[in-house]
């Protein structure tokens, strides 16, 4: 019986990582492009900073049900919960990297430092995927807890999130301090 609980937790962890990977493809790609352009021109830097503002003002928790329920209903386009989460997070973080460009950092430092920050933020927001029924790590812990009545299962996503965030934040801090 315990083995099936770990498979539920494993499915949630894999979905969480899949959400992060898929949701970061477009923001990283465009982020690198816009960061390169920002490094070449002060005007481009200001433009990208302002263009990213509307995206920075979107709340993923609100956008998730809009994409999943409203878009599906009014367009007759079927969307899986995973697809809706990926689209919503991609949309919310599309302007993350260019809006955080720092003049005093090198191009390489801007790209790497902000890319780690993007991964961190998408990872943290990925835990709200269960709002629309997507099996993320937090949802899987809730499913197991509802079957076992042991709230200790919530320590699994807590420990996993702590480990992943530490694995992102430690290199990010080192990059900020050591890289030119």
- Share of residues in strands: under 5%
Order of helices and strands: HHHHHHHHH
Task: Tell me the number of strands.
Answer: 0
Structure annotation, total helices:
9
Helix fraction by DSSP (H/I, runs of at least 4): over 70%
Distance between the termini: 52 Å
Q: Could you explain how this protein is built, in words?
A:
With 180 residues, this protein is mostly helical. Helix content is 78%, strand content 0%. The chain has helices at residues 2-40, 42-51, 53-56, 60-75, 81-92, 96-99, 107-126, 137-148, 155-178. Helix 1 (2-40) runs antiparallel to helix 2 (42-51), helix 1 (2-40) packs parallel to helix 5 (81-92) and helix 7 runs antiparallel to helix 9 (155-178). The termini are far apart. The model has no long low-confidence stretch (mean pLDDT 93).
Provide a short characterization of the protein structure:
The protein is mainly α. The chain contains nine helices and no strands. It has helices at residues 2-40, 42-51, 53-56, 60-75, 81-92, 96-99, 107-126, 137-148, 155-178.
Defining traits:
single chain; 180 residues; mainly alpha; 78% helix; 0% strand
List the helices and strands and how they pair.
Blueprint (H helix, E strand, L loop, with lengths): L1 H39 L1 H10 L1 H4 L3 H16 L5 H12 L3 H4 L7 H20 L10 H12 L6 H24 L2
Helix pairs in contact: 1-2, 1-5, 1-7, 1-8, 4-5, 7-9
